[in-house]
Design brief:
This protein is an alpha+beta fold. Helices cover about 40% and strands about 15% of the residues. The longest helix is centred in the middle third of the chain and has 21 residues.
Length: about 260
């Protein structure tokens, strides 16, 4: 297996993505798997009891509203801590198949059931695929008139006027000729007939950053079939990666 070199210092060499703690219903039905941190969350609150310690298996003490992933192969199988593309066990990261900029606009139900679209990738394969994902984002940006840098607009002209106002308010010993020039500048740029000290103070406190709709928000406002949108990203992931180690229970049509 080729040695993997981390592309970011925040990626740990031996990081484990999956804990494979089994969570059972009171009737001993396997509901889902999780890391030990989440398993211990149930134990610390007295919501579960230990059935086995290695690997950790807990049984819930209460009747859940549903049975989680009990009928979903991918959600129940033991997950291997390897890159789904190359099989490396080093520098693993979680990859969200549908990018966060879109997922954040999903319904809460979809957000809380996204296990199918989170896979493990080494940092090298992850970074390589992101370049392909960026191209798809660009296509969506063009299709829906949703600039990738949309979201924040900075008014550089207004910043200069705010600085002038603050200079007039807080800088001492400015020559009168300079004061007159700065005031004329404010009056001309803001189309003002009079310029009182109160007005100058208001100008100094003006907001020069405007929050506008983001790329993801604009795209998702034009998507009427979210499942098809999710499927599109899954297909893109498969088509742009030679996933030799992806579970056979994983598929693009999962709902």
């Amino acid at each position: 297996m080729p040695k993997k070199i981390p592309l970011t210092h925040c990626t740990e060499k031996n990081k484990k993505i999956y804990g494979n703690c089994q969570v059972l219903s009171p009737d001993d039905i396997l509901m889902f798997r999780c890391d030990e941190k989440k398993g211990n969350w149930y134990l610390k609150r007295g919501l579960g009891e230990v059935v086995d310690k290695n690997p950790l298996v807990i049984r819930l003490k209460f009747k859940p509203k549903g049975l989680g992933n009990h009928d979903r192969g991918f959600g129940l199988e033991e997950m291997h801590n390897i890159c789904v593309v190359c099989g490396s066990e080093e520098y693993l990261t979680r990859h969200h198949i549908v990018p966060y900029c879109y997922r954040k606009w999903f319904t809460e139900e979809l957000k809380s059931h996204n296990f199918h679209d989170v896979v493990s990738m080494c940092s090298t394969c992850h970074d390589s695929y992101e370049r392909s994902a960026d191209k798809l984002k660009l296509k969506l940006a063009i299709k829906y008139d949703a600039p990738l840098n949309a979201g924040v607009e900075v008014d550089t002209k207004l910043i200069k006027l705010i600085r002038i106002a603050k200079t007039l308010l807080y800088t001492k010993n400015i020559p009168k000729r300079r004061i007159d020039f700065l005031k004329r500048k404010l009056k001309t740029e803001l189309n003002l007939k009079r310029l009182s000290n109160l007005k100058i103070e208001k100008i100094s406190n003006m907001e020069y950053v405007k929050i506008k709709k983001t790329h993801g928000e604009i795209v998702m406002s034009n998507i009427y079939d979210i499942q098809e949108f999710i499927k599109m990203w899954r297909q893109h992931f498969i088509e742009n990666n030679n996933c030799k180690y992806l579970s056979k229970n994983w598929n693009t049509n999962f709902k």
